[in-house]
Amino acid sequence: MEAKEETQVKTTMKKALLIFNCLVLSIGNCGGPLIMRLYFIHGGKRVWLSAWLETGGWPIILIPIALSYFHRRATDPTTRLFYMKPPLFIAAATIGVLTGLDDYLYAYGVARLPVSTSALIIATQLAFTAGFAFLLVKQKFTSYSINAVVLLTVGAGVLAMHTGSDKPAHESSREYILGFIMTLVAAALYGLILPLVELTYKKSRQEMNYTLVMEIQMVMCLLATVFCTVGMLINKDFQAIPREARNFELGEVKYYVVLVWSAIIWQCFFLGAIGVIFSASSLLSGILISALLPATEILSVIFFQEKFQAEKGVALGLSLWGFVSYFYGEMKENKKKKLAAPETSMAPSNNPAGNA
């Protein structure tokens, strides 16, 4: 009886953790692109700085890690500050460098595309996540999940055929197309990163817990920040920040406020993304990132008065159709598992020891 109660508590805690990570991911996924675009439309021009801000808030993670350490220390004085061992550190560091490259590609795209357009392109990330999840972690597919991937890919294709229809007036066609391509490559790369994180969890020789997940997040963001810092040094972004702040359309103080909040909100995105992978799977993390697309679309139209042409409506409709297809398929699969579970538990054991 106690074992059953303990299992129920663990299941409840896992669901609560999944919901928490979904909420954190929602804040970061919707707020990150908006505040980054806010920086660019009001006079910000530094792509490497924007990429740096996506992971530059990594010291924030030290706070919950420290709280976890003091909580453990209260019952076990010999506990270590960090759980992570060298092999896991190397894996997290490698993924961190890839994340830094992805940050730059994404920031380059956001600098040149409206948020509504870049959000729709990023939705194709689900197709890449699904493909890499199948190759790396043997993710199982159903006709519904395949349908979702196809619909999202077609939606991006509709946008690609109408590039330039929402091109900002001050931007050349070459810059716009390059921004489109960079955003698509960023979607593909992050589609690889999510399954790589899940693979790291599975191949780790350490017992995974949420504290260790936060440590992985910290190392990934630290290495991504180092990667972007090198880019900023080469591009002389640090020297340009005071000058850019003085010329910022919203004022110098608000310039720094935008930078600080950008770093905080993007940390929510990364922590939520890898937290969902820990609680569920990389494919679900990719699905949620794409599923938040309508909210990002609506907010970009409200706050930035962006155009919403017919092709965007078609792409959004295909995306929503894909999301519904995926979640409907998941519900059917879960229902099948629940129906099969009682039959499995009632089946006679083939183990001779079971008759002893």
In brief:
It contains 14 helices and no strands. By secondary structure, it is mostly helical.
List the helices and strands and how they pair.
Blueprint: H1 2-41, H2 47-55, H3 62-75, H4 86-112, H5 115-122, H6 125-137, H7 143-160, H8 173-203, H9 210-235, H10 237-247, H11 252-279, H12 282-291, H13 293-304, H14 310-346
Helix pairs in contact: 1-11, 1-13, 2-4, 2-9, 2-11, 3-9, 4-8, 4-9, 5-13, 6-8, 6-12, 7-14, 8-11, 8-12, 9-11, 10-11, 11-12
Work out the number of β strands: 0
Overall SS class: mainly alpha
* Largest sheet, strands/sense/barrel: none
Radius of gyration: 22 Å
Distance between the termini: 23 Å
* Number of H/I helices: 14
Helix content: over 70%
Any low-confidence stretches, pLDDT <50, length ≥5? Answer: 344-356
Shape annotation: globular
What's the SSE pattern? HHHHHHHHHHHHHH
Query: Whole-number average pLDDT?
Result: 83
Provide structural commentary:
The chain has helices spanning 2-41, 47-55, 62-75, 86-112, 115-122, 125-137, 143-160, 173-203, 210-235, 237-247, 252-279, 282-291, 293-304, 310-346. It has 14 helices and no strands. It is globular, with a radius of gyration of 22 Å. The protein is mostly helical. The model is unreliable at 344-356 (pLDDT under 50). The relative contact order is 0.19. Helices cover 80% and strands 0% of the residues. It starts with a helix and ends in a 10-residue tail after the last helix. One of its GO terms (molecular function) is purine nucleoside transmembrane transporter activity. InterPro entries: EmrE-like, PUP_plant. It is found in: Membrane.
